UniProtKB/TrEMBL annotation:
Residues 380-391 have a biased composition (Basic residues). It comes from the Bacteria. Residues 363-391 are annotated as: Disordered. InterPro entries: GT87. Its main location: membrane. This is DUF2029 domain-containing protein. It is found in: Cell membrane. It comes from Kribbella aluminosa. The chain crosses the membrane at residues 107-126, 147-167, 173-194, 206-229, 241-269, 276-299. It holds the Pfam family GT87. It is a multi-pass membrane protein.
Length: 391
């Protein structure tokens, strides 16, 4: 926490968005370089541009996707475009900014993210202290939450709380999932794992968070999201789906990725009737990352929490692969091979586990749930042998 963010400059955008909201402006309406917000500049965020110096920027550019990512006058990335973050994330930024002096820079967010990571460790420890260490001792969590202050840690907390609440408070679980989707959009991929009317409640919650901003700024509430998807290659698959890129041309990747995503959603909807929801959410989220192959390791923070909750440590290979892909930016083949290796690790672990379970005569590994403040272990029916399944 005592070092400036290392892996990205996203935290500076968080600081700015929170400050803009406290000043009564919408981060969806104004870009950081806009001279209308010049009075909010300080030497930490704008080392090369004082409040009295004009930036020459006014309003939102017509084609923001073509603007450079960085500007030497500010530490905020993409300072020529409006924010990309959904409403719950923006509310979080504003809340942290309320208690953070301007001179502290990103420290307030780093402390907040670290506290959220600790809270999530406790939440996982209530389920299983041993498996909580998979999250609590993770260097990835320390780096991407405590140092880089990525908002994905908040999404991880809400997703985990949603999965845990499903058994006894399904409506609350759906609301938490919708809120997680309003932190980062990726959690909405877990909707197929939530049965009955829960997806409707989750989507209603997600939409409801946008209503105040929609009334205030209209369609500007989309922010830079369309431009971001274009820059990052999500719209046509040109620079994403690195595993598929090893075999398919850019035009075909998008179609194949969509087909795979739909198929996985259908499988998840079917499997959640018989498998623990934590397990379904874990492999569904991890498989989505393997399809999209993002080069940002912090996207994997929710997956680490789900891996701990579902007791599937092999999925940690996916965020680890993201670091190698991050370091291999511009080398598409290398990125594809790195993610392919992560997929091989996951498939190998799943195969070995299923073989061991089959040989032991158990239908599934033991599942421990928390009931009334005490842990109870529910073991599946033994089909003839007494050997215990692997944890």
């Amino acid at each position: 926490m005592l070092e400036a963010p290392i892996t990205s400059t996203d935290a500076y955008r968080y600081v700015w968005d929170g400050r803009v909201q406290l000043a009564g402006y919408s981060p969806y309406r104004y870009v950081p370089l806009d001279d209308a917000l010049a009075k909010l500049r300080d030497p930490v965020l704008f080392p090369g541009l004082s409040p009295k110096e004009p930036s020459g920027v006014s309003g939102i550019p017509k084609d923001p996707a073509q603007l450079p990512v960085d500007d030497v006058r500010t530490r905020i990335n993409r300072p020529g475009v409006p924010t990309i973050y959904p409403p719950v994330a923006e509310a979080y930024f504003a809340a942290v900014a309320l208690f953070t002096p301007w001179s502290a820079g990103t420290l307030g967010l780093q402390i907040a993210a670290a506290l959220i990571a600790i809270a999530l460790t406790w939440l996982l420890a209530v389920q299983s202290p041993r498996w909580a260490a998979l999250w609590g001792w993770s260097p990835i969590v320390a780096l991407e939450a405590g140092n880089a202050a990525h908002v994905d840690v908040l999404a991880a907390l809400l997703i985990t709380a949603a999965v845990i609440a499903t058994a006894r408070r399904p409506r609350l679980a759906a609301i938490l999932l919708g809120a997680a989707g309003s932190v980062k959009l990726l959690p909405l991929l877990l909707l197929p794992a939530f049965r009955r009317r829960r997806p409707i409640v989750a989507l209603s919650t997600f939409i409801a968070t946008y209503v105040p901003h929609l009334l205030a700024v209209g369609t500007l509430v989309l922010g830079f999201l369309p431009g971001y998807l274009n820059q990052e290659g999500f719209d046509d698959g040109s620079s994403r789906s690195a595993i598929l890129a090893l075999l398919l041309p850019p035009g075909a990747r998008q179609l194949v990725a969509a087909v795979l995503a739909i198929a996985l959603a259908a499988v998840a909807f079917h499997r959640t009737k018989r498998d623990p929801i934590a397990l379904t959410c874990c492999w569904l989220y991890g498989a989505a990352l393997l399809i999209a192959t993002p080069t940002y390791p912090w996207y994997g923070l929710p997956l680490i929490a789900l891996a701990a909750l579902a007791r599937r440590p092999e999925w940690i290979a996916v965020p680890l692969a993201a670091y190698l892909a991050y370091a291999s930016y511009g080398h598409d083949t290398r990125q594809g091979l790195v993610y392919l290796a992560a997929a091989a690790v996951v498939v190998s672990a799943v195969t070995i586990r299923h073989r061991f379970v089959a040989e032991s005569g158990l239908t599934a590994p033991p599942l421990r749930t928390n009931t009334g403040g005490r842990d109870e272990t529910h073991r599946p029916r033994n089909l003839g042998r007494t050997r215990r399944a692997a944890p």
